[in-house]
Amino acid sequence: MPAEPVETVYERRLAELRASAAELEQRGARISALRGVTFLIAVGLAGYGVFRWLPAAGWALAGAAFVAFVALVVRHALLITRAAAFELRASVVARGLARCREETRELPDRGERFAVAGHGYARDLDILGQGSLFQMLSTARTPGAEALLASWLLGPATAEIVAARQEAARELAERDRFREDIALLALEAQRGPPREPREEGVDPVIAWTATPPERVPRVPAAVALAGKVLVPITLALLVIPQVSEGLLPGPLRWSWLIGALAQLALLGAAREAIQATVGMVSSRQAPFGRYRGLFERIEDEKLGAPRSTELAAELRGSSGHDASQAMRSLERIVGYAELRHNAIIYFVVNTLVMWDLWVARALTRWHERSGVRVRRWLDVTAEIEALAPLGGLARERPTWCWPQVGGDRPRVAATALGHPLLPAARRVSNDVALGDDGLDPGSRAERPPPEALMITGSNMSGKSTMLRSIGINAVLALAGAPVCAEKLETSVLAVRTSMRLEDSLEHGVSHFYAEIERLKMVVDTSQAGGDPVLFLLDEVLHGTNSRERRIGAKAVVKHLLARGAIGGVSSHDLGLAALEEETGGRVRNVHFEELVSDDRMTFDYKLKQGPVTTANALRLMKLVGLDVEVSD
Asked: Is 435 exposed, middle or buried (0-12, 13-18, 19+ CB in 10 A)?
């Protein structure tokens, strides 16, 4: 029996969630109406009893109506909360459905904040920003997970790390509800009061937990000891006159004030330590406590992939729920600190029992037990949350494949390679082979794959898209994700591109100067001694005259090949086709071409061997109505 399409699964799940939310809202509306009736009954009977005689049964009915009103208020709030949770979960599933339908340009997170100035390929390959790979891929919502996923897309991992991520993501691809829960809990962890902007989204409570224990301000031991003595005495002096007249005669009835003033002095002496802990956790600025749901959900999931198992074990610890239990304990202490937001009650209670002092000591003890582990727990959660989109991509793109990553020789070999950001209905796939296949020359049935492709072709025929297809799939493969191909094998490569170039009047940079700076970055990377370079150069050196373009472009390509790089170059300049002969076949000519029928130009976007033999610039001028006399 064929597997049910994921789009159908998501549609059914979305319908279920929305139906549940609608049912709860309807029940809430009925309870709201009933709540209004009980309120009117209670107020009406009480008001009548104030101005007219009301029998005891009437007052009893008014009291019962008021109790029913309070109960209905609580019930209504619970229903509304549950309905909102269903709606939030529905929004998670709706985003998955949008990804299945390739409607990703309106998804919320585009990742621009992770952009790195002068990055080797991010801008050229649409890794971040509107309509980007990050926008299509990401379901991460916590700051750490978003940053981690972006870092995976901005730099290659080792073959071993890629293999571990793939295995973990394959497992997550089959766990729709787990991925849904992780995305929902991550969303909930980020909800709450507006937060002040912070560098890298670092929560102040998280920063506090990461502080070495010896640097955490502590309530002085002498102050704590004095408080333990003073508080019982002050409370006794306050309570005794209220329960037994004459036991404390005359002025001694007010002696508790002396104790209260002494306690205020002690609080002042410990003010720095108290404010550094209690003041920080009660600031209402951070959603840190809401991470407990994420911790608990991961702890409870039985994961089998080695990397996922290793990560979950760090959260579970010796008890099986170390991380979530620590968060529950912290939430309880923070709840005590929230008394600060009720000014009158807080002043009275803090004066009488030194409330802040005991909360600060509880926070310090919690920090000693668990603080050193929190940063690692958050990193673990971020990694699992970042792995989930990789698994989700495999689930939502079932025709894509898991690439094979590794090998000593630089290579990219793909069957039916397509551009991941193009809709399937418009996408045209091509086979691509670059680099050494590792076979002995005598065992090859055909000539070996080239180390570089020289792509020529007419305008709009698909040259740039081909280069981007190679680059963006390489990025996906080296992040540990599935790729848009039937099959793909690649070694670990440093992707470098020169495609989208802009001049700058403000900085005095011409288009050509911007391009040669970009080419220098590509060449420098090839000489740096790291991973072999995969270079992708679109319309190389088109900002200068044809003679210098040919000389310069040939020199750059030969230099890159000499340093073990592989890649692709596109150009309109057919003079660069001579590179195939000059390099002994290490560069191979391929091309795209247009089809013209009845003065209408179309493209099949299929990669063909050899240099292009046609051009379309003059045809395009004619088709758009640029009616000028052309002479050769």
From this structure: buried
- Give CA–CA dist 465/316, Å, rounded: 46
User: What's the alpha-carbon Rg for the chain, to the nearest Å?
Assistant: 34
Average of pLDDT values for 538-566? 87
Question: Cα–Cα distance between 537 and 496 in angstroms, integer?
Answer: 9
Tell which residue, 609, 556, 562, 539, has the closest CA to residue 451.
562
CB atoms within 10 A of CB 201: 15
Amino acid at 359: V
Q: Which residue is listed with tokens 């170059």?
A: 569
Helix/strand/coil (H, E, C) string of 74-142?
Answer: HHHHHHHHHHHHHHHHHHHHHHHHHHHCCCCCCCCCCCHHHCCCCCCCCCCCCCCCCCCHHHHHCCCCC
What is the rounded CA–CA span in Å between residue 521 and residue 121? Answer: 11
| 473 vs 485: CA distance, rounded Å | 8
Q: How far is CA 208 from the centre of its chain?
A: 23
Helices (H) and strands (E) in the chain, counts: 22, 12
* 570/576 Cα distance (integer angstroms): 9
Task: Report the predicted TM-score, pTM, of the whole model to 2 decimal places.
Answer: 0.86
By CB neighbour count within 10 A (0-12 exposed, 13-18 middle, 19+ buried), where does 572 fall? Answer: middle
| Gap between the Cα atoms of 281 and 337, Å rounded | 7
CA distance readout (Å), 174 to 3, 63, 70, 169:
12, 55, 45, 9
- Angle 165-169-171 (CA atoms, 0-180°, nearest 5)? 125
Distance CA 402, CA 167 (A): 10
Contact status, residue 523 vs residue 559, Cβ threshold 8 Å: yes
Residues 571, 589: contact at Cβ < 8 Å? no
Residue whose pair of structure tokens reads 């409607």 in the numeric block:
103
- One-letter-per-residue 3-state SS of 554-565: HHHHHHHHHCCC
Comparing CA positions, the residue from 85, 89, 66, 88 lying closest to residue 77 is 85
> pLDDT for 220-243, tens place per residue?
888 888 888 888 888 887 777 766
| CA–CA gap between residue 553 and residue 533 (Å, rounded) | 17
Reported as a single tens digit per residue, the pLDDT across 500-510 is 876 444 444 56
Residues pairing with 2 in the sheet: none
Q: Which amino acid is at 445?
A: A
Q: Cα separation of 366 and 361, whole Å?
A: 9
Please tell me the distance from the alpha carbon of residue 150 to that of residue 162, in angstroms, as a whole number. Answer: 15
Rounded to 5 degrees, φ, ψ at 103 are -110, 65
Q: How many residues does the chain have?
A: 632
The closest alpha carbon to 558, from 586, 518, 538, belongs to: 586
Q: Return d(Cα 484, Cα 470) in angstroms, integer.
A: 10
Instruction: Report the C-alpha gap between 287 and 256 in whole angstroms.
Output: 40
Would you place residue 198 in the very low, low, confident or very high pLDDT band (cuts 50, 70, 90)?
very low
Beta bridge partner(s), residue 453:
568, 588
Nearest-angstrom CA–CA distance, 592 and 135: 30
For residue 589, what are the β-bridge partners? 454
Question: Which residue's entry shows tokens 């050494």?
Answer: 436
